[in-house]
Write a structure and sequence with these properties.
about 170 residues; eleven-stranded antiparallel beta sheet; mainly beta
């Protein structure tokens, strides 16, 4: 079996938290000075998710031994996928709101610089596609003014989605 052709894959995933935060407390690391200090916040509320997955596989020729198979004759239409003229297309789009819970740890190094570590879990299999997702962030922050901060860092997102019998299961980690 010798296939030839091309593959195109586009994945777009976005989420926006509308949650609230509760400051559990802030504690100085030294009894003599107020900084550095550690803070703990609890996070929770609704999260808007948008998932867009597109996969197109063009099979121009399939050969079994040296015999070419005309795949342009086959077609299929499913819930999220089609096969037509030798191309398999899977196109899935979904937007929904789900709950999330999390915690954020802050290390205040000085009045201007801080380090934030944040982790949260959302979905819990309650709303869209029976899934769970999580986010982890490690950020270095700079206080520009009293209410404005600039951050640079790393964010990781993991998601476990079940699209049903059509696409079985998709695991995403970015």
């Amino acid at each position: 079996l010798t296939p030839s052709g091309s593959v195109k894959y586009i994945s777009r995933l976005g989420n926006l938290d509308f949650g609230v935060r509760y400051l559990v407390g802030t504690w100085p690391l030294s009894a003599d000075k107020p900084l550095p200090a550690v803070s703990v916040e609890l996070l929770g509320g609704p999260r808007f998710n948008s998932i867009n997955q597109y996969l197109r596989i063009n099979l121009s020729v399939i050969k079994i031994a040296t015999v070419p198979i005309d795949i342009g004759r086959f077609s299929l239409v499913g819930k999220h996928q089609t096969v037509k003229n030798g191309s398999l297309v899977i196109d899935y789009n979904n937007q929904y709101i789900e709950p999330f819970l999390g915690v954020r740890l802050g290390l205040w190094l000085s009045p201007k610089f801080l380090v934030n570590l944040k982790g949260d879990v959302g979905g819990f299999g309650l709303v869209g596609d029976d899934h769970v997702d999580c986010n982890m962030e490690a950020l270095l922050g700079y206080r520009v003014s009293q209410h404005v901060y600039a951050y640079a860092g790393y964010r990781a997102h993991g998601g476990w989605y079940d699209f049903g019998q059509d696409l079985v299961q998709l695991n995403v980690a970015m």
